Amino acid sequence: MIKATNVTKKYGGLKALDDFSVDIPEGKIGVLGPNGAGKSTFVKIALGLLTATSGEITVLGEKLTKNTTNIRKKIGYMPEHDCVPDEMTGVEFLIEMGMVSGMSLAGATERTHEILGHLRMGEEKYRLIGEYSGGMRQKVKLAQGLIHAPELIFLDEPTSGLDPNARREMLETINGLTEVSNTKVLLSTHILQDVEMVCDTVIIVKDGKLQMQENVEKIIGKKSNFIQVRIGGPVEDFISELKKKKITAEDDGRALIIPYKNDSTYDQIIDATVKSNCLLYEMERTTQSMDSVYQEIIE
Amino acid sequence: MKKKAQVSDRFRDFDANLTTRPWIVLGMGLRRFEKFFSTKNKIIMGLVVIIYLWTLAFDVLLASGSENYPCVLRDNGDFFDDDYSGPLMVEFKDCGPLTYYGDLFTGGGIRILIVSLAAIASGGMIGNDMTNKSLHLYLSRPISRIDYLIARFIPVFLLLLLVTAVPNLIVAAAMWSDGGLKTEWITGHKWLIVNIFVQGIFYSAAYSIIGLTFSTALKKESNASGAFFLFVYGTSIIAELFFTILKAFGIDGADGVLLISVSHVLDMISYAIFDIEYYVQAGFAPWKVDISDTEAGAVFTIIFTGCCGFMYWMILQMEANK
């Protein structure tokens, strides 16, 4: 879908992207990284809005050294910041954006009403955008990116500034709309849960360099060799009992994390609980979260 | 369920059938031009109506007739005794299409209305897109930065053409009617039609591009409009003041001072189009200005390309910094 080879982007003395190379497959891709990692710069270069200082980038099979404007016929873009004009209605704005993409008035009007229907916007679509809530403004921003039926949409921090409910609704909308329109997604964000909810593949970027590229399912599905235990009573005694069995336990503040060797580890934990006069509340194998992978890479 | 599936299929298989860049740009420009005539833009519509009423009243109904149109030879004898024939006595050509662009005290025209209209129409054209950041959305479409600038230039340019070349052509048509609607009048005045058009294009293009530059630089609509108006009139007043002082003291280089004023540069080009010598009304008398067409053309080119370059750079900066 997107291939970057040794892409460097400098802003004066600052390197936003540093010899960045990646081969992004088709699908729903998350670009994850802390603020200032170079995510937005990468998106803007891929969109042809910025020119790389050096390196080469190919989007949907077309090199971006030339023909940067034509490639945008195949790409939609939802920027991070609020950029919808207050003085237009939702319908007027989307029709205008459709026509600026090259659609006819009839085509843009038809598509506008279809998309706003999918977004469950009723009469409010005829109201001025200035009167919309934050969530509705985000929906309109997403809709303008999909108005011209692009093959691929770049979503730059789509849930930024939304409350938890609006965030969940936005992510569901992204999933629903991109699935129904069969659009590929490149989601740039610093929120892990957004990637977990929307993407198939995650790319982690830090200091302008690619740190990791992995399938999201694989990361989430990876069972780590740990058992999470919550007990009541003298915890120190319980840990001592485990030590006698050559088992270590680490307190992460919420529960004790014990390495899993085989199924007999469960029996040994129960035995230690009994011997230390503790009450066993909970014992389960843990799933390695995106959060832990991300923290590991970033730190 | 079946119906829902059909809706989804249609949505997924939608063919946007996108047009090419030139049509996108032209469409953007024409839609903005059309918006000038919406009920939200009462001031713009009001100014256009005043300009047309003014033209009809003073250049058609109260005009002296087709025998003095388009040009008549005058002198500044009104300022001297009848027997004076010294060096200050000058003869100059007074052309209707040229005085149209003058100020009221020069016996013309509607410059103040045209400049006001340009200021109001261009003030928010790019500045508003930069303030509400919709500029990013426009530039993420299949158009380049230059395409965007052209799309924003078109509506202001067309609006100004509507109050420069078009009324002048109406005056010409009225004079043709006054001359008996003879074919010979038209064939003998083909040059006039062309000149009126070219002249209108120069005025409209210059005011549009300068107005858009102020819009880009200041972003806030009212500030940009005010600054544009002050720039056009301020430089004109300063240039005329220095010109008059330097002329009064007989200091060389007085004519060159006029090049700092965009209205004088446009007037110089306008007079060159009509192939007559340029006279400036300063200190109650017309003064012949000795500036070559090349110099005036070069200044116009510098203004135009400078403004375009500045706007392009500003947009580039905004994109890089979000």
Low-confidence stretches of chain A: none
* Strand portion of chain B: 5-15%
Structural class of chain B: mainly alpha
Computed structural class of chain A: alpha/beta
Q: Any idea how many domains of chain A? A: 2
Rg over C-alpha atoms of chain A, rounded to the nearest angstrom: 24 Å
Amino-to-carboxy terminus distance of chain A: 29 Å
**How confident overall, as mean pLDDT of chain A?**
88
Protein architecture, described:
- The complex is a heterodimer of chains A (299) and B (322).
- Chain A folds into 2 domains: 218 residues, Rossmann fold; 66 residues, Alpha-Beta Plaits.
- The longest helix of chain A has 17 residues.
- Chain A has a 6-stranded mixed sheet, sandwiched between helices. Chain A has a 4-stranded antiparallel sheet with strand order 2-1-4-5, with helices on one face. In chain A, strands 12-13-11-14 form a 4-stranded antiparallel sheet, covered by helices on one side.
- Helices cover 37% and strands 29% of the residues of chain A.
- Chain A has 11 helices and 14 strands.
- With 299 residues, chain A is of the alpha/beta class.
- Chain B has 322 residues and is mainly alpha-helical.
- Chain B has one domain.
- In chain B, 66% of the residues lie in helices and 6% in strands.
- Chain B has a two-stranded antiparallel ribbon with strand order 1-2.
- In chain B, helix 2 crosses helix 8 and helix 14 packs across helix 15.
- Chain B is globular.
- The mean pLDDT of chain B is 87.
- The chains are: A alpha/beta (299), B mainly alpha (322).
- At the A-B interface, helix 2, strand 6, helix 3 and helix 4 of A face helix 1, helix 2 and helix 7 of B.
